[in-house]
Structure formats: C-alpha cells, structure tokens
Amino acid sequence: MEWVLSAETRARVGKSIARKLRREQKVPAIIYGPKIERPIPVALGTNQVVKLLTAMGDETKVVNLAVKREDGKEEQFQVLVKDVQTHPFKRRLLHVDFYALPADQDVDVDVPVDVVGEAIGVKKGGILNVVLHSLSIRCWPSEIPEKIEVDVSNLDIGDVLHVEDIRDQFSFKILNDDDAPIVAVTPPEGFEAPSESGEEESTESGE
C-alpha cells in the first residue's frame, strides 16, 4: 500500500507555535536529508500521522509527503519516519522527524527482521531467541523492503543463524558483520545433549 501524507510549511517555529499547532490537531515536524540544505519545518494533521504509525507497526515504509509551500505550490518528497516524540504519559504526538530520501543514490536504513517458520529445535522444546530485531542495509530508496524475512525452520537446539548465512539471499547489501548472530535456539532448562562417549559406549555394549 502506498502511503501519502499532506503537510504545509510553517514559517515560525518554537514551543508556543508547537503548542498552538497541537491544539489545532496538527503535529509539528521537520524534513531533512542529504539533498536538503536546511531542515524544512512543516505541520500535518495528527490523525493521518496516527493512522500511518498504526499501520507501520515495526515495519519500514516509504511515504510520499506532499508539502504545500507558502506560495501555494506543492513539493513532493519520498521520506522515512526517523523519529517520533510523544508525551511521556498523555500518549500525545509532540514531533516527527522525516528523512527525505535521495532518488539518485543508495541510502542506509534499518529494516526490522521478521522471523518465519518453526525451528526444529523449538519443536523439541528449545527456546527461540531473536538477537537482532533489525538489520542495517544499503539500497536504492525504491528497493527498501518493509521487513526482512528470516526462515528459522532448519535451526536445531544449539544452532545460531548469523548474518553470513542469509547475506546472499537478498539483492540489497547487509551492512552488519558476517558473524553477527540474528537468531539462536537455546536449550530448555535441564537439557543435556547426548555425549559422543555415551554413544560409543552404547554401541560397544550392543556389540
């Protein structure tokens, strides 16, 4: 689903202006990025931001942000939500930072990991531990995935899935180190793996 947000530039900034915007059910925000010389202060409707954040969940979404300037002209930006400030106990949006993506160069972004499948080790009673909940990747803005699916079906008790194990599965570049663990299946409490000597003894007694 393509997300489109509408915003308008704001000439004045400051705490009093921000409070006034919130009373009008608007959220103060800024747009910044490598192709923007100075951050652009904007304001947009609270409801549309809440809907976007609810739909996003833990995923990464590229948003088309249409900004109406003071002269009436409209400017389009492809952005990522980089930071959201909320009131500590009123659950109210205070400020949003949008990162404007350059259309003509790779960008570095963090994308959440989505674990799929049921590990063999979990079926045996093991515990699945997700070590990395997101991966840093480099790709064109148009190729940014909402999430990175990691299949754990073949993991047994004691197995660890590292970045190097999945690196060749995707067209984008993963920036994390090869030996960085993504998912591990740890043994349950009291689990004892059969020892090689024990196996040899049982074989010999069988003879």
General description of the model:
This protein is α+β, with helices and mostly antiparallel strands and 207 residues long. It has two domains: 3-100, Ribosomal Protein L25, Chain P; 107-186, Ribosomal protein L25, C-terminal domain (RNA Polymerase Alpha Subunit, Chain A, domain 2, Beta Complex), CATH 2.170.120.20. The chain has five helices and 13 strands. It has helices at 15-23, 46-56, 120-123, 163-166, 196-206; strands spanning 3-9, 26-32, 40-45, 63-68, 74-86, 93-100, 107-116, 127-130, 134-139, 148-151, 160-162, 173-174, 181-186. The chain has a six-stranded mixed beta barrel.
Number of strands: 13
CATH architecture of the largest domain: Beta Barrel
Please estimate the helix content: 10-25%
Radius of gyration: 24 Å
Number of domains: 2
CATH class of the largest domain: Mainly Beta
Could you spell the SSE succession in H and E letters? EHEEHEEEEHEEEEHEEH
The neighbouring-strand order within the major sheet is 1-3-2-6-5-4
Specify the biggest β-sheet.
6 strands, mixed, barrel
CATH homologous superfamily label of the largest domain: Ribosomal Protein L25, Chain P
Q: What class, by secondary structure content? A: alpha+beta
